[in-house]
User: Fold this.
Amino acid sequence: MGTNFIIAQIFGVLSIICSVCSMQFKKRKHIFIALLLLSVFAALNLIFLDSFSSAYITIFGIVEMLINSLFERKKKSVPKLVIAFYVIVNIALGALNFTGWLDILPIACALVFCATLLTKNEQTIRKEMLLNQILWLVFDFSVCAYMLVVSNILTIISTSIAIYRFSKTRAEKSATPKNISKSKATKKSSKKN
Assistant:
């Protein structure tokens, strides 16, 4: 085992921590802060494993997050031209080091991630990240990014739990006594008429 492999695994462990935590946050802003840190650690992991195509795509994902945050601060939507730029750059970065069909996975992941950045609903973000992590799982395993594989698996589990937990929370909120009493009042008023 070389030094680069060991360093890559250390960054992989850091990505595991960020990855598992990211989907458990309730607010979109906190989810993306954790995803930003995850992306930094994952990119470093991939660089130390000499998986440059996927590292470039991951680094560009960081750039996408930062650009999108500028638009969000100004309370503006990301222009369609910028979205088109994201798609073109992600495909170009993937094509730069394309060596086989497996290299399509980071491109697909990048495009799913691009969609995730534009999503406003936290539950939809979680579902898109679930798809993203499944695709990365296959790729990371094939390039021996074992800590990222663990990260992918734990994130898939964590995201699935978060999807369930927050959908359950939403259902419980709609069934609160306040809402139940409102529905009873509506039924009584409709009976009177």
About this structure: The mean pLDDT is 84. The first helix runs from residue 3 to 22. Residues 3-167 form one domain. DSSP finds eight helices and no strands in the chain.
